[in-house]
Structures are given as C-alpha cells and as structure tokens.
Amino acid sequence: MILAANLCFLWLVISVLIFTPKNMSREDLLFLFLTSSIILMLAIYFPAMKAYLGISGYKLQTAEFIAFIINRNVILPIITILFINQILSAGVRQKSLIFFLFLITIDLYCSFEERYTTVTRVPFLFLYEMAYWFLCLGFLKAFQLLNRQEIKKRNITRQPQ
Known about the structure:
Layout: H1 2-19, H2 26-43, H3 45-53, H4 62-89, H5 92-112, H6 114-117, H7 125-158
C-alpha cells in the first residue's frame, strides 16, 4: 500500500515540476537533482543500511524499501528543485517565506512517512533540513558560477583574431 501511495505522490510531484515555469537551465536542474540525491544518500546512509540489513528491528519489506528509495532518491530531490526554483524567481520578501515553507513541507513529509524517509527518528530535524537546503543552494550557485566562467572561456577562444 505504501508503495502505491508513494508512486501516486511521485506522479503528482513530477506533474507539478513539469507545469511550473523554470528559472534554471536543464543543466542546473540536472545538477541540482544529482547533488541533492547524493547529499541525501550520504546523510541517510547508516539508517538505510539498518533498514536493508534488518539491524535493530528496522527490517523493511521489499515494497517498503522501494518506497524508501523512491522517497530518498526521487521525491525529496524533486521537492528541493521545486522550492529552489521558486526561490530563484521570488522577490526579496518572498524568499524567507519560501524557505520556511520548504522546511515545514519536508518536516511534515518526513514525520508523516518517517519509516520510509529517515527510517529512524532524527532529533533536531530542522537543523538537518537547513543544512541540506544551504548545501544544495551553495552547490547550485557554485555550479552556475563555474558554468558562466566556462561559457566566457569558450567565447573568448572562439573570437577571431
């Protein structure tokens, strides 16, 4: 049942992503998706191993483990992309509101499906969410800066002399 619910929610999140106007290039979207997936995989590595190996009674069934993987590697990164996309298009006053909406959304989702997102209870989840948010934003800004520099280098080398 949880797998079906996650697949329906995944469909909904992907639909919202498709229909929202994008303020990032495809490269930025792909980079942010991969970066947020890697950050989440590293952050939830040990609870995932407990769930996979069945250590300390956290053994998940196959459908539950697939739901966990979908949450960790697809749904949460896409939600991050949606919120960061909104941050990039928002005004100064709206950015803090979007940031707190992101924290509340992720916190509610992680507490609602705790067994399939973080596996175990995480104390001070807001701190982890804030660190995740700022890491994703920082990596995206660094990627955009490096991408602009690469484009400038290409334009300089292509100019006729």
